[in-house]
Amino acid sequence: MAAGVFLFVAVNAACLAVSGNLVSGERSFSIDYKNNCFLKDEKPFQYISGSIHYSRIPRYYWKDRLVKMYMTGLNAIQVYVPWNFHEAVQGVHNFTGDRDLEHFLDLANQTGLLVILRPGPYICAEWEMGGLPAWLLQKPNIILRSADTDYVQAVSNWLAVLLPKMKPWLYINGGNIITVQVENEYGSYYACDYNYMRHLRTLFRFFLGEDTVLFTTDGNTDREMTCGTLEGLYATVDFGTANNITEAFKRQRRFEPRGPLVNSEFYTGWLDHWGDPHAVVDAQKVSRVLGEMLTMGANVNMYMFEGGTNFGYWNGADHDTRFRSVVTSYDYDAPLSEAGDPTEKLLAIRDVIKQFRDIPSGPMPPATPKFAYGFVTLKKVGNISGLLNTLSPLGPVKSQYPLTFEELKQYYGYMLYRTTLPRDLSEPTPLISPLNGVHDRAYVSVNGVYQGLLERDTTLVTNVTGQQGDIIDILVENMGRVNFGSKINDYKGLLSNLILGKDVLTDWKIYPLDIDGAIAAGWPHSDSQKSFPAPQKEPSFGPVFYMGTLEPNGLAWDTFLKLNEWTKGQVWINGMNLGRYWPARGPQQTLYVPGPLLRKNQPNRITVLELEGAPAHLRVLFMDRPQLNATAEKS
Ligand SMILES: *[C@@H]1O[C@H](CO)[C@@H](O)[C@H](O)[C@H]1NC(C)=O
Ligand SMILES: *[C@@H]1O[C@H](CO)[C@@H](O)[C@H](O)[C@H]1NC(C)=O
Ligand SMILES: *[C@@H]1O[C@H](CO)[C@@H](O)[C@H](O)[C@H]1NC(C)=O
Ligand SMILES: *[C@@H]1O[C@H](CO)[C@@H](O)[C@H](O)[C@H]1NC(C)=O
Ligand SMILES: *[C@@H]1O[C@H](CO)[C@@H](O)[C@H](O)[C@H]1NC(C)=O
Ligand SMILES: *[C@@H]1O[C@H](CO)[C@@H](O)[C@H](O)[C@H]1NC(C)=O
């Protein structure tokens, strides 16, 4: 054991010797600077916590996951609040159903778990735009995460809604929230704007009172700690198994000479990007390092304890050297799997925790049952170019030059850009995105016949043939906004002109597409009286919708959907958007299908939007286990 470690143990022993002056029945939570620990009801308190994101788990399963965390021996959970999940349209707030944050807090409280709340407003979390609503981008050149007037106004309006709801849930007010984080790893952001952080501090204090423990979390470098910390907000660090613990906590000590040691994000695993190798973190290393930190008396939050799923369009993206979108699964190689099942890693962690506190007696709840429903053969509904009446009920917006998703106020999913070929192109002619303005992927068809694709940072040219006056359709996919770093002003759609041969394409009709709205209203299954195209004999290419039904068998168990030999697209079951699939790029091969969305006694409606090319067999497979790692085959 290193000398430094020994010193911390000694410091902590002092902390545990404190005797409380508790006025009976009074609830308090505070920092004991003298003895370097938290005090809960005037008694020394050490948290062993795990991150869980309610926005990545169907409401039906919240309790199941929380009970499993409790049974592992955790005494707290750490929770992000994604602003864009609750305020998708500016000024319209949703806190119901899967967005019912207070119900989630209530379940945690009933389970016996304290809460470390992380309300942002920016959260990163590998979540679309780091939780910021894309409507902020309507102001061109807005400086997000700074004292920019419009940004600060929007933040103030949001926190004036969120924080008063949270106030009764503070531990000191009878709830379970012990500490509240301000912003998130702010020191990693280029702006380093103390006026912004001071403004947030004022708002948090105003809405939550003077007695709430507010904190910041930053990466383990001096620069990050310098820009991310502020007086009055307790400074904590985050780091994983690769770091030297002694060094990492020494850095926290430089910024916070006294008070509890806190690792706010101890990485139990890691995320995956499409096209990158599958990430895992060794269970033995995780449990060993956890044990070392707990021995030092440190407070630890494991990020993630239960990762869940990026359903719908909620995945984020990174942009370091190039744009890399986060996969649909947020399994994270966490102690509870994406489907909420206890893993070997969880059992190893529980064995460590046992050495530090009494863990609840009784068995760990088992994995939820899984079922292999088998193959379903889909049929073609039609190509997207032929379905615009259904998918774009309000029709197109006309514009000489392309407009972004944000300008048309459609923030997520897909939009279609249509114009005509300015001249005959009998030879393959390059369609070019000279300024790399396709965000993020564009599927190009002429008169409904697929020609090829453009992709941000990687494919800036594709060939097109056709005749003057032919319709050229460019379906643009938003693959999730950048959630980290300096490129979070991530506008989507066609951000600059496309050039075809020598001509700048102009005079666009831009169709916002409400695919989710059409599917929620029952399409395409409700149209099934109409005759669909005959079953296909050959693969078809380009953006095409398919549908099928999974016949009921009396079960509504979790399952995993594999689209073997399909290329890339989006899947809905019974109206729920399960997210993106991209087996051609990997590593993820199956999509998690939560059992409660299946109907036991009625046909289950499957809708697939395949963007590039479906296999001739048109089969999809429901399996009883996930497949998150296949060798990444580049498409
Ligand atoms: C609010 O969110 C819930 C859960 O996702 C959803 O069912 C509901 O339709 C939303 N409400 C509104 C008014 O959009
Ligand atoms: C939290 O649970 C405790 C019992 O464990 C209860 O006394 C308290 O009222 C609950 N708080 C809230 C806000 O529901
Ligand atoms: C961590 O760093 C300290 C110096 O601060 C050093 O003494 C110790 O050996 C390092 N531990 C490991 C495991 O590398
Ligand atoms: C696309 O759909 C339209 C309308 O149904 C149809 O006329 C066209 O032939 C289709 N294109 C292809 C390539 O199948
Ligand atoms: C486009 O077509 C030209 C001429 O046939 C060919 O040389 C070139 O490789 C093609 N480019 C792409 C990106 O397919
Ligand atoms: C993923 O699969 C590849 C080969 O299929 C293998 O080489 C690699 O070790 C696997 N990665 C993990 C993290 O299991």
Automatic annotation (TrEMBL):
<dbReference type="Pfam" id="PF21317">
    <property type="entry name" value="BetaGal_ABD_1"/>
</dbReference>
<dbReference type="InterPro" id="IPR017853">
    <property type="entry name" value="GH"/>
</dbReference>
<dbReference type="Pfam" id="PF21467">
    <property type="entry name" value="BetaGal_gal-bd"/>
</dbReference>
<keyword id="KW-0732">Signal</keyword>
<dbReference type="InterPro" id="IPR048912">
    <property type="entry name" value="BetaGal1-like_ABD1"/>
</dbReference>
<dbReference type="GO" id="GO:0004565">
    <property type="term" value="F:beta-galactosidase activity"/>
</dbReference>
<dbReference type="GO" id="GO:0005975">
    <property type="term" value="P:carbohydrate metabolic process"/>
</dbReference>
<feature type="domain" description="Beta-galactosidase 1-like first all-beta">
    <location>
        <begin position="402"/>
        <end position="514"/>
    </location>
</feature>
<dbReference type="Pfam" id="PF01301">
    <property type="entry name" value="Glyco_hydro_35"/>
</dbReference>
<dbReference type="InterPro" id="IPR026283">
    <property type="entry name" value="B-gal_1-like"/>
</dbReference>
<feature type="domain" description="Beta-galactosidase galactose-binding">
    <location>
        <begin position="543"/>
        <end position="601"/>
    </location>
</feature>
<dbReference type="InterPro" id="IPR008979">
    <property type="entry name" value="Galactose-bd-like_sf"/>
</dbReference>
<dbReference type="InterPro" id="IPR001944">
    <property type="entry name" value="Glycoside_Hdrlase_35"/>
</dbReference>
<dbReference type="InterPro" id="IPR048913">
    <property type="entry name" value="BetaGal_gal-bd"/>
</dbReference>
<keyword id="KW-0378">Hydrolase</keyword>
<feature type="active site" description="Proton donor">
    <location>
        <position position="185"/>
    </location>
</feature>
<protein>
    <recommendedName>
        <fullName>Beta-galactosidase</fullName>
    </recommendedName>
</protein>
<dbReference type="InterPro" id="IPR031330">
    <property type="entry name" value="Gly_Hdrlase_35_cat"/>
</dbReference>
<keyword id="KW-0325">Glycoprotein</keyword>
<feature type="domain" description="Glycoside hydrolase 35 catalytic">
    <location>
        <begin position="38"/>
        <end position="355"/>
    </location>
</feature>
<feature type="signal peptide">
    <location>
        <begin position="1"/>
        <end position="17"/>
    </location>
</feature>
<feature type="active site" description="Nucleophile">
    <location>
        <position position="265"/>
    </location>
</feature>
<comment type="similarity">
    <text>Belongs to the glycosyl hydrolase 35 family.</text>
</comment>
<keyword id="KW-0326">Glycosidase</keyword>
